[in-house]
């Protein structure tokens, strides 16, 4: 049988070319002493591209892929063939998957694990044959009806145990495939109503589960990062991992702030009432930045639309905060994005990623130029220059007291005057680069 992407040639960097080509993404271009590919660390997700059938809350399947419904091992292998063909065409260095993406669920937990291991053999061979590396693996603990009341937070301890087995199997495979991170997205770790919810109990269960995941990471010698992906709502009304700050508080409570980092998604940041760059900056400030899912929401819609990024100024500000924080280390830029239901063709899957990768390349270039110019940073330093004085630093030193500082203010008859924040000037400055 002919491959799904047989009519599409490998995409190359050709800024003046026609048709499908990278016009801005040049993997070997040097930016701030590093190759563009090594800055961006692009990854393609398995789920939206090869699992999603084009359905939405008001209509069913619109996509017709030859491996659907992928409910047999033969169809799962066909899906893997198509996925790695697409990875090759795009030339991406990484990919990501859920366990449920790569194998059909079995009639028993043991059968599901056996199928996962078998498909792991398939992926391992494809990676050895020149396929991309694994950025991260994760377990789907939200689609099946058994998770309708949560995964680790479920009121049924048997579901908690089922999750433990599922995560162990997926962590083992991620480790075997040399994955660089392992992600936990608590899709249904939250609640719909307090009328039937023991909030304290569920948070304790979630914290204990995460602690055991970290312990298991060390037991098997997995060197990658454990990541939590914050999201404020949808599918549950109240998610426990609302945003970066909430996740940090949760990690601190259970003593995991040095063990777990965050995978931040642009769409989730917007749903939480933040900007993408805010969440990245907050994670860097708290020391828990790990990786990003790059997509966008439709600002006229109130839900997570997972569209491909197309706004260079927004992307530039996100990469600016990433570069300020030292760049992506084990993390990467994963396209957790999906086609619109009306984009039916194989070429649409390729074109969407090509366009998104070009947007990210433009954003990275702009971010690096801003940082290297020192324009924003100089103005930021100037705004806080007063805190470089020894007297001001003493305010925050160990042993400083409210009384002593108040006495100094009164002795000097301080009467500080407001200084302009120059927001509009700074916004104009950014626009010079994007």
TrEMBL record:
Note accompanying the cofactor annotation: Binds 2 magnesium ions per subunit.
GO biological process: D-xylose metabolic process
The keyword Isomerase is assigned to this record: yes
Binding site for Mg(2+) 2: 265, 268, 304, 306
Chemical reaction(s) catalysed: alpha-D-xylose = alpha-D-xylulofuranose
Any single Gene Ontology cellular-component annotation: cytoplasm
Keyword Transmembrane helix: no
Active-site residues from the entry: 98, 101
Cofactor(s) required for function per UniProt: Mg(2+)
Span of the signal peptide: none
Keyword annotations from UniProtKB, A to Z: Carbohydrate metabolism, Cytoplasm, Isomerase, Magnesium, Metal-binding, Xylose metabolism
Chief place of localization: cytoplasm
Source species, domain of life: Bacteria
GO MF entries: magnesium ion binding; xylose isomerase activity
Assigned EC number: 5.3.1.5
InterPro entries in alphabetical order: Xyl_isomerase-like_sf, Xylose_isom_bac, Xylose_isomerase
Quaternary structure annotation from Swiss-Prot or TrEMBL: Homotetramer.
Protein name: Xylose isomerase
Gene source species: Phaeobacter porticola
């Amino acid at each position: 049988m002919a491959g799904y992407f047989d009519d599409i040639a490998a995409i190359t960097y050709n800024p003046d070319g026609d048709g499908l080509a990278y016009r801005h993404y040049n993997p070997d271009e040097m930016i701030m002493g590093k190759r563009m590919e090594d800055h961006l660390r692009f990854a393609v997700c398995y789920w939206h591209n090869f699992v999603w059938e084009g359905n939405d809350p008001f209509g069913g399947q619109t996509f017709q892929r030859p491996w659907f419904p992928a409910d047999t091992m033969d169809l799962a292998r066909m899906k893997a063939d198509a996925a790695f063909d697409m990875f090759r065409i795009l030339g991406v260095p990484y990919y990501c998957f859920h366990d449920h993406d790569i194998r059909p669920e079995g009639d028993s937990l043991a059968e599901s694990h056996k199928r996962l291991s078998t498909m792991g053999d398939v992926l391992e061979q494809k990676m050895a044959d020149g396929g991309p590396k694994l950025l991260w693996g994760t377990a789907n603990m939200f689609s099946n009806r058994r998770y309708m009341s949560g995964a680790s937070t479920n009121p049924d301890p048997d579901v908690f145990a089922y999750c433990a087995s599922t995560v162990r199997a997926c962590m083992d495979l991620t480790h075997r495939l040399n994955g660089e991170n392992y992600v936990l997205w608590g899709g249904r770790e939250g609640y719909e109503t307090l009328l039937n919810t023991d909030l304290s109990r569920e948070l304790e269960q979630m914290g204990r589960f995460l602690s055991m995941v970290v312990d298991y990471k060390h037991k098997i010698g997995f060197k990658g990062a454990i990541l939590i992906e914050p999201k404020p709502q949808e599918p549950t009304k109240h998610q426990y991992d609302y945003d970066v700050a909430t996740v940090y508080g949760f990690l601190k409570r259970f003593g995991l702030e040095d063990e777990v980092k965050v995978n931040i998604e642009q769409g989730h940041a917007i749903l939480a009432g933040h900007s993408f760059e805010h969440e990245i900056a907050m994670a860097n400030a708290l020391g828990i930045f790990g990786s990003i899912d790059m997509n966008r929401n439709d600002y006229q819609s109130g839900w997570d639309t997972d569209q491909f990024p197309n706004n260079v100024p927004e992307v530039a500000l996100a990469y600016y905060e990433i570069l300020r924080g030292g760049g992506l280390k084990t993390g990467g830029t994963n396209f957790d994005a999906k086609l619109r239901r009306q984009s039916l063709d194989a070429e649409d899957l390729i074109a969407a990623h090509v366009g998104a990768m070009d947007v990210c390349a433009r954003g990275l270039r702009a971010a690096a130029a801003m940082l290297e110019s020192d324009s924003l940073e100089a103005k930021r330093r100037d705004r806080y220059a007063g805190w470089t004085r020894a007297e001001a630093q003493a305010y925050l030193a160990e042993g400083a007291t409210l009384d002593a500082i108040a006495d100094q203010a009164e002795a000097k008859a301080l009467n500080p005057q407001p200084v302009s924040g120059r927001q509009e000037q700074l916004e104009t400055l950014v626009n010079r680069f994007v």
